[in-house]
Amino acid sequence: MNLSALRADGRGADQLRPVRFQNHIAPHATGSTLIEWGSTRVICAVTVEESVPRWMKEQKVTGGWITAEYSMLPYSTLDRKARDISKLKLDGRSQEIQRLIGRSLRAVLDLEKLGPRTLWVDCDVLQADGGTRTASITGAYVAISLAMKKLIGEGKLTQSAFTQPVAAVSCGVVNGTPVLDLNYLEDKDAAVDMNLVMTGSGEFIELQAAGEESTFTDTQLAEMIRLARVGLKELLATQAQAIAQ
Predict the structure, then answer these.
(1) Could you please report the per-residue DSSP string of 61-107?
(2) How far apart (Å, rounded) are the C-alpha atoms in residues 185 and 31?
(3) pTM of the complete model
(4) 3 state DSSP class of 126
(5) Residue 218, number of CB atoms within 10 A of its CB
(6) Is 124 left (phi over 0), alpha (psi -120 to 50) or beta?
(7) Nearest-10 Cα torsion for 1, 174, 70, 88
(8) What is the CB neighbour count within 10 angstroms for residue 22?
(9) Which runs of E-coded beta strand occur in 73-218?
(10) In tens digits, what is the pLDDT along the chain, a chain of 245 residues?
(11) For residues 19 and 35, is the Cβ–Cβ distance under 8 A?
(12) Of 208, 209, 206, 129, which is closest to residue 173 (Cα–Cα)?
């Protein structure tokens, strides 16, 4: 069977959509990048605050901290998405995603090396076509790496606080076949949806897999993990190129 025939955009089951980084998109941020992943576009920007949260001071926790915020702009989807501020509370999905971004980044950061400062990572979705959370994590790593380079240049850090790279990708079961990197049309019709966050050394930080009114087998799960590793290897190489520019 021609697996590319299963996908509306003609990709093979193991192919990512094109991924591109445009660095320094936000001039006032310490580090920033626009990640374009197919038709999904997310600005990831890092702001440095030379202090730590009050709870760290009160509990005498040393080192620094990193926190993430995620937002889909009103015009990022086909139908206008109301801003969270209009509902006077953070959307549950946005809250879940920004916690995932923060967890993923803290897993590969030496907060002691960061020093007593806070990195604020803002991920703003300009255009959504599936995979906004995975694009946010993948782009945030690049944005923070650029911020680290600037801090090193200013003499505020002696070396990067990252212990290793991190990236994220989605997989799913579409028309009975496991595929890599779902776009919106595939995501909304997928029988199974999985998001995977992995380090440069190949260890997992998080797996989120769920059947959409469906179940999946050990074999399908193993194939999705294999596909994710293929995609993540490519993403890590693209990140490295973007940071080195």
Answers:
(1) --S-EEEEEEEE-GGGSSSPPPPGGGGTS--HHHHHHHHHHHHHHHT
(2) 32
(3) 0.93
(4) strand
(5) 7
(6) beta
(7) 160
(8) 13
(9) 118-127, 166-174, 177-180, 192-199, 204-211
(10) 344 456 878 999 999 999 999 999 999 999 999 999 999 999 999 999 999 999 999 999 999 999 999 998 877 877 787 777 656 567 788 899 999 999 999 999 999 999 999 999 999 999 999 999 999 999 999 999 999 999 999 999 999 999 999 999 999 999 899 999 999 999 988 999 999 999 999 999 999 999 988 999 999 999 999 999 999 999 999 999 999 98
(11) yes
(12) 209
One-letter amino acid at 139 equals G
- Encoding tokens for residue 52? 């730590």
Query: Comparing C-alpha atoms, which of 203, 160, 194 is closest to residue 174?
Result: 194
Phi and psi at residue 100, in whole multiples of 5°? -65, -45
93's tokens = 């999905």
Strands 166-174 and 177-180: antiparallel
Domain residue ranges of the chain, discontinuous segments joined by +: 3-244
Residue 39: both structure tokens together: 């038709």
CATH of domain 3-244: 3.30.230.70
Burial class (CB in 10 A: 0-12, 13-18, 19+), 233: middle
> 203 — phi, psi (to 5°)?
-90, 150
Backbone angles phi, psi at 199, to 5 degrees: -90, 170
